[in-house]
Design brief:
This protein is mostly beta strands. It has two helices and seven strands, in the order E-H-E-E-E-E-H-E-E.
Length: 155
């Protein structure tokens, strides 16, 4: 089992959250809300208005998201879904726990403010002009940015 941090369309209430619930993709258990311990640019880019976490530590904002425990099947699905390694790359990241609600496999659950590690899908393969796009702390497809996300089925 792996811990994965999601910050975009896979979060609760977002357009691709159903993928996390679909047992044919594998198993995913919501564990916690968290934020990155380093600032990163979270931008919305491409003609489909996809949220991207640019792998540029120290720029942007402390990014808010959710931690899930996923099995190998779900991790493989997420790798395919996130087009690893061409669009996104999977890396290990330190996160600050905001609220832990999931199980910790017999261990005491991390308290708010605790630092944990999880895999994140970020990218080093972006267009240069993306660096000039607005950065966000938290992604919401219905946010005041006015950029409608186009799901894969609509492309």
């Amino acid at each position: 089992m792996a811990h994965v941090f999601v910050y975009g369309t896979l979060k609760k209430g977002q357009p691709n959250y159903h993928q996390m619930l679909d047992c044919t993709n594998g198993k995913a258990e919501f564990l916690a809300t968290a934020c990155t311990t380093q600032k990163f640019p979270l931008i919305i880019a491409s003609k489909y208005n996809i949220p991207f976490l640019l792998n540029i530590p120290g720029q942007g904002h402390y990014v808010q998201g959710e931690i899930y425990k996923v099995n190998d099947k779900m991790l493989k699905f997420l790798d395919d879904f996130e087009s690893v390694p061409t669009m996104y790359q999977r890396t290990l990241l330190k996160l600050e726990v905001k609220e832990w609600v999931g199980s910790k496999d017999g261990e005491e659950a991390p308290k708010p403010g605790s630092i944990v590690e999880a895999l994140v899908y970020s990218t080093t393969t972006y267009k240069p002009h993306w660096l000039s796009l607005p950065c966000y702390e938290s992604y919401d497809s219905d946010g005041d940015h006015g950029l409608q996300y186009f799901c894969r089925e609509c492309r």
